[in-house]
Amino acid sequence: MTTLMAILPYVLSALSAINLASIWLARKAILRGNWLIHRHFMVASWAIWGATLLLLAFYLWRRGVVVLSAVPETVFGTYSASVIVTIALLIATLLHVIRHQFLPHKLLARKTIWVWLWTCALGILFYPLIDAHVIAPA
User: 60 FRET partner, CA 20 to 30 A, in 9, 96, 118, 123?
Assistant: First the structure.
């Protein structure tokens, strides 16, 4: 289990990189007018990001995290805020799709995709950083 806990931040970082690529490919597909490929990449991105957040919660729970000591507060705060904003935007964007409101979806998705890409890019840097600076209770 200790080996898993040692490599998990780097697995999370790799998942963020894969998610970043998936979102970018989804964007390219919709710009080319291929909505089916776009949908497949977006569903994959949702799944990858959901798995990443669940694994992060598992990691923090197993480590019994009390303090993220030397992680700069701006990095931690920026990542936390971007995750919250991304989740809210993704839910709003998905609700437009479910209701078949494609114009509002398109307008909101133009902003959401950049926030989501930013969050994934921050994740690539943030996950190894938390491993180096976590203080767990003894």
Answer: 118
- Residue-wise pLDDT for 71-109, tens only, equals 566 667 788 889 899 999 999 999 999 999 999 999 999
Inter-residue contact 66 to 85 (CB < 8 Å): no
pLDDT digits (tens, 9 = 90+) for 113-138: 999 999 999 999 888 887 666 555 44
**Minimal CA–CA distance to 65: which of 15, 26, 9, 22?**
9
133, amino acid identity: H
State pTM to two decimals.
0.83
**What is the percentage of the chain residues whose pLDDT exceeds 90?**
60
| Phi, then psi, of 65 in degrees rounded to 5 | -60, 130
Can you give 1-19 as a three-state secondary structure string?
CHHHHHHHHHHHHHHHHHH
DSSP string computed for 39-83: HHHHHHHHHHHHHHHHHHHHHHHHHT--EE-SS-HHHHHHHHHHH
Where does residue 18 rank: exposed (0-12), middle (13-18), buried (19+ CB within 10 A)? middle
Amino acid identity, position 2:
T
